[in-house]
Write a structure and sequence with these properties.
Blueprint: E1 41-42, H1 49-59, E2 76-77, H2 81-96, H3 99-105, E3 106-107, H4 111-120, E4 124-136, E5 143-153, E6 159-170, E7 176-179, H5 185-195, H6 198-216, H7 219-263, E8 269-279, E9 284-286, E10 295-298, E11 304-310, E12 315-320, E13 323-328, E14 332-343, H8 346-358, E15 362-363, E16 367-371, E17 375-378, E18 387-391, E19 396-403, E20 407-412, E21 415-420, E22 424-426
Parallel strand pairs: 3-7
Antiparallel strand pairs: 1-5, 2-4, 4-5, 5-6, 6-7, 8-11, 8-14, 9-10, 11-12, 12-13, 15-19, 16-19, 16-22, 17-18, 19-20, 20-21
Length: 427
Amino acid sequence: MKRNKKAYSFRNNKKNVFAILGDNKKYLMPILFVLAVVLTVVIALNANKRTRESADAFAEADLGATLEINEIIPMAENAYEDVNALIDTYYTASANGDAETIASIYKGLEETELLKAVAAADYIEGFQNITVYTKPGPKAGSYVAYVYNEVKLYDYDKAVPGLETLYICTDEDGKLYINIDIADASEIEYLKQVNLQEDVIDLNNKVATEYNEMVNSDETLAEILTKMRAGLQVSVGEALASSEASTDAASEETSAEDAAGEATTDAPVQTVTTHTIRATDVINIRSSDSETADVISKTSKGEEFKQLEALANGWSKIEYKGGVAYVKTEFFEVVGEETVEVENTDEQNDQNATDATQTTVKSSDTGKMKVNDSVRLRKSQSTESDVLDMIYSGSTVNVIEQYASGWAKVEYNKKTGYIKSEFLTKD
C-alpha cells in the first residue's frame, strides 16, 4: 500500500485554547481518536419555509450580534457550498497529513493535536460519504456543523463511521475557518445548548451505535484501533521531543549573552494577577486537571477559592489547604481580583512550585510503574519548568513519591524529575 506521508514538526506556543463542549462529550463520537481534538463547526439551514426565513434573517444580522436560542431550528443537510468546501479541504488535508493547510483553517489548534492529525494520516487512506448537517451559530456568519464521515484505513477493508462537531466562523475578509479559540461565555453556553437539542442527540446516538457495533463485532478492527492509538502516542512524543531539542539548540546560542546581561541587573519584576472565584454548585475538588484524578473534597455552593491559574483545558488551579488542587472553571464565577509584583527568577519559580505542592498529602503508590502516554519529565512540579527528558508511552519509571497536587516524583534514564500522576499505571 502507498504511504507516502511527509514528516512534520510544528511548535505553537499559544495556551489560550478553551475546551469547548466538555459537558457534552458523552454524546460526541470519538471519530477515530486520531482526530480527537476537533471540536465545533458550520451553519444553518432548514427544510421548510419558516426555517429558511429564520436562517435568512440570521445571515443578515449585524456581525457583532449574538444569536439566542429562542426556537429549535432543525439541522439542514449539505445546505451551504462554502461550508462544504471548507470541510472537504479539512478532510483532504487530514488524510494527506498536510499540517500547513490544517493550521491555516483551524484557529486555536494546539501543537499536540496538530501533531496527532499529521501522524494519523499514516493510518488513513481517505474519508468517504461526508455529510454536513448544520445549525446557526451564536453569531452572524458562524455555524455549528455535525459532520458524518466514514474513515477508510489502510489496513482494514471496511470504512469506519464517525461524527465530528465543528464550530465554523467567518473572519474579517469573509473567509470561513474552524474555531476552537473561544473565550466568550455566551458563545460557549450557546454551543452547549445546541448540542443538547433532540435532533443533535439523536444523530450522535445513531452514529455512536453504528461505530460501537462495528468495533464490538470485529476483533480485527478493535486491535487495529488500539495499535493506532499506541502508535500515535509514540509519534507525537517523538515529534515533541524533536521540536523541544531544536528550540533548546537555538536558545543556547543566546544564553551566554542573556546570562551576562542578567548578572549585571536586578532580578526582573513580574506582575501577577490572581482571582477569587466562587462555586455556583457543589463541585468535586481533584488532585489534578483530569476527571479521572482523585477527588480530594467537594465545594459548597458559594464557597470561594483563590484561583492560581485558569488552564486552557477548562480547569482552574486553586489554592487549597496549603497546597494546590483543581476544579472545573465553568462551575465558578470570578468575584475578586488581586495584583502583586514579585521578583521573577527561574530558581524561585521552581522552588515555589515545589514547596507549594510538597506540603500536600503524599500517595503510597510508589515503585516501578509505566507511563500510558508520551510525557515530558520536568525539573519541578510545573508545566512551565525546564524539561529534563522525554518519556515515551509504555516506558517504565521508578515512582519515588506522589502528591495530592497531581504530580509524581520519578526516576527515569538516570534523571529525577516530575510528571503528572494521571500518566502512571501499575505494571
